[in-house]
Amino acid sequence: MDEVLFFILGVLIICLGVYDLLYTTFAPRGAGLMSGLTSTLIWRFFLGLSMLFKTRRALAGAGITIIMATILSWVLMLWAGQTLIYLSDVDAVVNSTTEVPANLYDRIYFTGYTLSSLGNGDFKGGTNAWRVYSAFISFSGLIFITIAISYMVPILSAVTERRSLSIRIAAIGDSPELMLLNSWDGKDFKSLDKHFSGLAQPIAKQGQLHLAYPLLHYFYHSEKAVALLPNLAALDEALTMLLLYVPEDKRPSNQTMVPIRRAITTFMESLTAITPAPKSLEEPYLGIKQLEEANIPLQLPEAERLDQLRKRRKLLNAMLSYVGWEWEEIANPKFNTDLDLRDIR
């Protein structure tokens, strides 16, 4: 009876591991059940450390830890499942010299060795069928482990792309209001067109990369200039100010603004599966004091338009909070002022 139980349990664990690996690596959207759970638990652990020690630098190691833990979980599920299958038959693994059936630890050793190679010959399958099965899992194990490792390479490349995009957005201005003030020429904000041009495509790409590689979300940067989410939130807030408070004839063209706004929307949608519900946080304050002090002609937005953006801004706030940022920080300086003129903003 135990042998049947071992076999069934082994098959279930292998199926879960293979499905999780293939879904995470090949599905166009999201992570598998085990990968998602592993990522969430480890991220919450690192987030707890950052709160305990009151430093976001504790989050810096979360990304690589989650990657290694995810690969390890796949390997362990395959290893455990195959070991249970070998335990389902007393003659499944025998000593190559004495033909004595292997004990538990020998079968664990034999399974691990077989998954990555064909072993070193001290143990073997006890029957022809088990020897063929050993060759099969050696071949399949090597394929799955190679897929798991290959999956991680594009993530590291995507992290570099994300840092580059973040710096490009941060260079527009230190805060949402400064993004606008830096482009005000006394008449309008049309000069923002050259900053916004070409931003929609890389932002949309980052959203799709988050869907294809959910682990990408857990690579944290404590430096604001290279942290994409705070800079995207600042850019989106600047667009909100333009759409609500700036007369249409003084805004950048819709041909540059609308694609960016929609690209940010797709980016936000790609993160909704791993961030809190928007109702869990209050809507952040929308401040335009600096614009008013600069005597920029503004219009009073309709209440209905403000209501339409409430969910969007609450979701952005929730996303920032989940990765350890506060909404107020999107207005903080982004670059190291020790290396440049103090009045550059």
UniProtKB/TrEMBL annotation:
Q: Does the keyword Transmembrane apply?
A: yes
Q: Which keywords does this chain's UniProt record carry?
A: Ion channel, Ion transport, Membrane, Transmembrane, Transmembrane helix, Transport
Annotated TM spans: 5-24, 30-47, 59-80, 132-159
Annotated Gene3D superfamilies: 1.10.287.70
| Gene Ontology BP terms | monoatomic ion transmembrane transport
User: Where is the Potassium channel domain positioned along the sequence?
Assistant: 75-155
Q: Does the keyword Nucleotide-binding apply?
A: no
Domain of life of the source: Bacteria
Output this protein's name.
Two pore domain potassium channel family protein
